[in-house]
Amino acid sequence: MVTFLADGHVTSPRGWRAGVAACGIKYANRDDLALLVSDYPATAAAVFTTNAVKAAPVRYDMALMAQGHDLRAVVINAGNANACTGSDGDAAAAAMAQAVEQALDLPPQSVFVMSTGTIGVPMPVEKIVRGIAVAASHLSQDHGPAAARAIMTTDTRPKYCAVAVTLPDGQVITIGGMAKGAGMIHPNMATMLAVVTTDATVPRAVLDQALRRALEVSFNSISIDGDTSTNDTLLVMANGASPAPPITDLDSPAGSAFYAGLVAVCQHLAHAIVRDGEGATRFVTITVRGAVNDAEAKVAAMTIARSPLVKTALFGADPNWGRVLCAIGYSGATVDPDRVVLSFGGMRVLENGLPLPFDEKAAHQLLDVPEITIDADLGLGDGQATVWTCDFSYDYVRINAEYRT
Amino acid sequence: MVTFLADGHVTSPRGWRAGVAACGIKYANRDDLALLVSDYPATAAAVFTTNAVKAAPVRYDMALMAQGHDLRAVVINAGNANACTGSDGDAAAAAMAQAVEQALDLPPQSVFVMSTGTIGVPMPVEKIVRGIAVAASHLSQDHGPAAARAIMTTDTRPKYCAVAVTLPDGQVITIGGMAKGAGMIHPNMATMLAVVTTDATVPRAVLDQALRRALEVSFNSISIDGDTSTNDTLLVMANGASPAPPITDLDSPAGSAFYAGLVAVCQHLAHAIVRDGEGATRFVTITVRGAVNDAEAKVAAMTIARSPLVKTALFGADPNWGRVLCAIGYSGATVDPDRVVLSFGGMRVLENGLPLPFDEKAAHQLLDVPEITIDADLGLGDGQATVWTCDFSYDYVRINAEYRT
Lengths: 405, 405
What we know:
Two copies of one chain form a homodimer.
Chain A: E1 2-4, E2 16-21, E3 33-48, H1 56-67, E4 71-80, H2 86-104, E5 111-118, H3 125-136, H4 144-150, E6 159-166, E7 172-180, E8 193-198, H5 204-216, E9 222-223, E10 233-238, H6 253-275, E11 283-291, H7 294-306, H8 308-315, H9 321-330, E12 341-344, E13 347-351, E14 354-355, H10 360-367, E15 371-377, E16 383-390, H11 394-402
Parallel strand pairs in A: 4-5, 8-10, 9-16, 11-15
Antiparallel strand pairs in A: 1-6, 2-3, 3-4, 3-10, 6-7, 7-8, 11-16, 12-13, 12-15, 13-14
């Protein structure tokens, strides 16, 4: 059983503490560095951006994860992505990890590094190292929310949650998480940082398998503007602070319970990113059923989610079935237009490829709300997928015409 | 030698006439039907939308072209796309062709049909048939511009041109064209109608080859919003009214001259579509050099052209090399970030993957102009491609949130 904790956060699981600091990297008068520490060695699994242009911390972490050590801490800064910063950037990422190792007397190769913010600007390493000392000096189980605030860039709200998972044997494990990300969000790990913590005991291989499965139905099922970025990273760490027995098989009852909790946290964070999409005014859930298989259903759903024409129509609360049908048509998914059924907000607007009459004013009112659903049935098979996106508004243009990444 | 004709249009080539009519399909007080007629049987080649959802006229024309007959006329209406209209739509497309055949006493299977406008609305066939009679009654060589105006939907300007091509033997052939299309423009034949006419004599197979080559460097090298549509069609017809000898080999001197003229017309029309992109304030030429091959250069260039983040930055006159570099990074093209060189408006902003210092105010002024270039050199090989796009503005959102396709 999975239950969301009231005010749960990334340090809700046992044995996790966080500290923050205001380094003055880019922003004035706010924390811009978060340090997340486990009291015990934690197994870890991570997924990184698929962009060929990878930031220095991503390169650092990929090498780190390849070595397979347990982790003890994650340090994250906002305001500077440490991307397109050359070999100085690589040195800066390593210096951040070392500063944490020294401040907390941790073993080498036990600290993961994340950066987000402007790219192409040299890292102010000294400021960050001073901030790490500050953050390390006041670690607390209560600082999870502060950590989520410290990693924000264009985000308007911090994003965090935690769930309690009751295992079949009655023991309870906790899974927490935090994320940042507003623009440039698309599957395949777009500009998004997310950290998930748990006090469960999970061998590295099982954790890795769970992460990759959960990723597909959460962060890789959202789209804000279709761009992917240099820094995206999703990290999950399990420190075993709970007395519950190890999760050794994802398909066992305990494994299924753990996985359900992991998915709940990842989906919550992914949805929070969509809801905070740059200029977003509506949260849109798109479900495609009846595809030849799940993969084609997802391709069709994501193509709808990416279409600027669909997204501007949603901003206008327009049940524009034509644009949705077009998107399905060019998605590459197998489609027989004469079988397609489309609904907006539960109102059926297209059946067997032909539009149904509807009251335009009533439809507009139905869709002029913060949460919209689009349902498509391709009528071909059992394939199904759900993805989430937001609309394209005037503010999306304003924010992105003015913000320098 | 290719020379643009002052005020050249789709009926500039010999043996072509056009007529228009106001059928009242959707718009009041304007022509919404164009009839283009050749005095002689014309060889023809066409390319259609790749969208799985194809409008009735596209289905009609695909069957027509498969039969390989010469064509005598094209009828085009605006205001109703005759898409998602079921078997009634198929009957309407056939009725349009038959009405032209009867009005002009043409042989069966000699009339091509195009429709553009709202989808999912039954075609007002009687109105259109009456309009065809009107248009057929006043065909003229002077009505090319009126025909280009009659096929407009959200277009703000008619799009037409013609070139004179002086062949190596001194004879002159003429190639004309017209197009419509504003939103939903992307390669693979997005919502766009284009007709190209010539008085050259070109066997069907050669014409088809020329069309497919020219398509790649014109209509398939533009992107407005990445969506593709149900009706897109590009048609070229050669009626042989010129005394010049047949073009039997595209790689011969005469063939090369003809092809250069065809590319000039297609690029002019494609650029006109981009310039008239919904809400567009800037025309952007993106060139990628140094790719592993031409295909990868084009993938990288089109990915830049499609990125909403790049397009909003261009609206803001922001030389945001980071977003361009990111787009190259996720394009799938082979890229070594440490070799990439980027320029905006001729100003180099990134070299070997590292940003160069530049005066932000001067850069903004440099880019706050109607025509912008982005040049990327991947530093890996000889692959090169140029594509064209426009920016994403507030008006793009406004137009598409309000317009019902």
